[in-house]
Amino acid sequence: MGFESMKRIVIKVGTSTLTYENGRPHLRRIDQLAKVIADLKNSGRQVVLVSSGAIAVGINRLGLAERPKDTRGKQAAAAVGQCDLMALYDRAFAEYGYVTAQILLNRDVIEYPERKANAINTIEALLELGAVPIINENDSISVEEILFGDNDNLSAIVASLSNAQGLIILTDIDGYYDRDPRSDPSARLIAKVDCVTEEMLASAGGTGSNRGTGGMRTKLEAAKYCLERGMSMAILAGDQPARLYDLFDGRAVGTVFEGGKSNV
Predict the structure, then answer these.
(1) Which residues contact 72 (CB under 8 A, 6 or more apart)?
(2) Residue 212's pLDDT band (cuts 50, 70, 90)
């Protein structure tokens, strides 16, 4: 199913897209992202936003010279940064007439039927009311994201919970390459993928930036999760949120992992 015909989608944005190298919030980009998402909603689509960035924003707000190395320090930074991040989103979306809502999840939400049902019901109600649900992992309590990865896998879970037809990951690279383009200039962008293999996962690189914790492997894991559930996923460069228009207009952009879900 092509993105141009999708009515409910999840967009995940990474820390490297939301912040500058010095860790300060990238205000223009946050505003651009809010404007595009608001416009997608104006067109009749429903959008759930999964946002990283709380720890990086919290580090900046606390005036720390570097990212804390201990878990408690990262949790404290996340608690401070999540407040700032939501305030930025709230102001940005308000400019375009939309209300935001914060949902903090742990990835084990899918393991407990009651928690899963509550999460589904909350997301569904917010979408029906026209709000923009903004979801992050509960970094001030959970240690999973801090220790093992970023929100890529969580965003795939959210896509499933929200019964979305597709997931879009905005990151600091413009798609999936056959080799690491940062170290190999001859690396080739792969525009379409219909299966994520163990070989692809094994050859995927590590972290994408010094501010985020995810890399291409977690994005491929998210794509595998989506494809197994009939959803499509796309990887796009996040430095120009307006590229989302190209994807929804059916133009070739980034990498699309094509699934077949069409029941929303």
Answers:
(1) none
(2) very low
Element (H, E) at 105: strand 100-105
- Three-state SS at 193: strand
Task: Give the pLDDT band of residue 58 (cuts 50, 70, 90).
Answer: very high
Q: Which helix (H) or strand (E) covers residue 166, if one does?
A: strand 166-171
- The residue with tokens 């903004």 is 134
Indicate the burial class of 8 (C-beta count within 10 angstroms; 0-12, 13-18, 19 or more): middle
Three-state SS for 144? helix
Classify each residue of 114-136 as buried b or exposed e, where b means 16 or more C-beta atoms within 10 Å of its C-beta: eebeebeebbeebbeeebbbbbb
**pLDDT tier at 140 (50, 70, 90 boundaries)?**
low
User: How many Å apart are CA 25 and CA 50, to the nearest integer?
Assistant: 16
The residue among 166, 264, 143 whose CA lies nearest residue 222 is 166
Angstrom distances, CA of residue 12 to CA of 150, 234, 235: 11, 10, 10
User: Rounded to an integer, what distance in angstroms lies between the CA atom of residue 24 and that of residue 16?
Assistant: 11
Residue 161 identity:
L
| CA count, 13 A, side-chain hemisphere, 83 | 11
Helix (H/G/I), strand (E/B), else coil: 167: strand
User: Lowest-confidence range among 2-6, 14-18, 34-38, 139-143?
Assistant: 139-143
Cβ(211)–Cβ(198) below 8 Å: no
Place of tokens 């205000």: 27
Q: Is the pTM of this model over 0.85?
A: yes
187-204 confidence digits (pLDDT tens): 999 999 999 999 999 888
Cα 98 to Cα 120: distance, rounded to the nearest angstrom: 21
